[in-house]
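Homework help board

Subject: predicted structure for assignment chain

Our instructor gave us this sequence and asked us to write out the predicted structure in token form, then describe one feature. I got the tokens but I'm not sure how to describe them. Can anyone check?
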Amino acid sequence: MCVENGHNYTVIEVYLKALKRRRYSPRTISTWRYPLTLFASFSAARSIDRLQDVSRDDLAAWRLNLIERGLTDASLEVFLRAVRNLFKWMEAEGMLFDNPAAALKMPKYERRLIPVPSEAELRRLLSQPNVTTPIGIRDRAIMEIGYCCALRREELARLTLRDPDFLQKSLRVMGKGSKERMLPLGDQAFKWLRRYVEDARPVLLARNAEIDALDVLWISVDGKPFGGQGISVMLKKYGREAKLSVNITPHSLRRACATHMLRNGAHPVQIQMLLGHATMCHLAQYLRLTITDIKKMHAQSKVGR
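My token output:
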């Protein structure tokens, strides 16, 4: 029998489909598919026909195998986390009596500090679209919403006409794991989103009023849904035109929002709720950025010298 038709691969596919139903991004699912498939092959080579039979010793051998392959600590973490999350899901689904991956430790390493566009650079970026055109109004609205609400790319792309509440000046967002959160719209985000919905979107939609595009929020130049890939390309283009030092992506806007709010005194718990993170540990990279600012300010002011 072909290994890929075996029990382990079937369980992995069911797990990945469960992630898709919980609105995990295609990129995340694709990122996890490879290490899980590799783990299934590794298990088959050790004559493990069922994932339920994997032991702690098998996982230790898996970790050693990855290290011998020459994986970096960052890649090693992705591979181990993918397997740990798979077993956590199996445990929650009642497929396991004892989870062998419960104590699987992630490698500790110094994460690279990802640069974040400054507030001045964000203002320059937001001024790039030609807002005398429907496309320019749409692009400005996308950037304002992405920055104000700190949305992931898929969250931004999946917005529908039902999500903005202009009376309450809020936006409903469906995040990872189908977790819904209500976010406030700042004045600029509210202004440009409303202008887009009332003035620009009808013009774009009239160019090709497809049924499947009627409910989506963002419309392309030819009247079709404007998805995540289009948003990424658009942001990169405006980033180049603004001559920014940082590569602009939807996640750049998300990081910028969190970092700028922390720098201006927002409480970390408020940032956690805005970002839709389940725990505070994900805020580490933003806190490190602000601590870097404090150290720089401290050195410049020559305190204690």
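Reply (TA_rk): Your tokens look well-formed. For the description, you could write something like this. Strands lie at 164-165, 170-174, 180-184. That's the kind of observation they're looking for.
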